[in-house]
Amino acid sequence: xxxxxxxxxxxxxxxxxxxxxxxxxxxxxxxxxxxxxxxxxxxxxxxxxxxxxxxxxxxxxxxxxxxxxxxxxxxxxxxxxxxxxxxxxxxxxxxxxxxxxxxxxxxxxxxxxxxxxxxxxxxxxxxxxxxxxxxxxxxxxxxxxxxxxxxxxxxxxxxxxxxxxxxxxxxxxxxxxxxxxxxxxxxxxxxxxxxxxxxxxxxxxxxxxxxxxxxxxxxxxxxxxxxxxxxxxxxxxxxxxxxxxxxxxxxxxxxxxxxxxxxxxxxxxxxxxxxxxxxxxxxxx
Length: 285
Ligand code: 13P
Fold this sequence. Notes:
alpha/beta; eight-stranded parallel barrel; 9 strands; 46% helix; 16% strand; globular; binds 1,3-dihydroxyacetonephosphate
């Protein structure tokens, strides 16, 4: 259908009570798996490349492939930089045709986060690229370094969020309300009241990072309280790894391409499950 910017996708989701999945692309298999599922399920989707994954995804080489695949897709697709930590990373994404960037200034003091985010918003909006920023801090990385539990002292303050959005004019705001990146220890608890307060004060679509390992009920409540974009990586990666571990138990020996197809199928199943829960399935017929 089209390559679109993030604002178009998340505004529609925000106003119609569903969320768009943002899935991390780390290679060709993840790209193909995500897009195939999105098309089969008539779902909008966000292809997300994290700055932390730049060592695996050479952006100069891979962006033309991402762009071509997104343009050819039968559903709307945004091409998004996940957790851009620095201006050079943001500029690299802009130069390579991304339609959305996240600037993650969540560990900076509030004033500095506002100033840097505003600079990026002005630059990105001038070329019709959407901006997501983070206020409060969602801990952990998409691997074993995650603490597994959220730190309430880092949760997003609703009043600060109101100021932040007014000052920066971001298109979507990532919030810290109890989710963490990576694998959870114990049962996560989302602060839904806080989320609803942030939505009411800011009026912008909200973003939930750490979408792996939450329950269907968590997602339902979070979407009802303003979440319109949900980031998922660990569940895809775990599904791929689990499938890889079964290979030696299979009756037939697989060649390399067949093996990669098996991995792709596992990722597809993980992505499809999330799209169903997020309510994005069937939104584009
Ligand atoms: P998970 O790896 O926990 O699913 O989080 C992904 C994410 O938030 C990427 O920004």
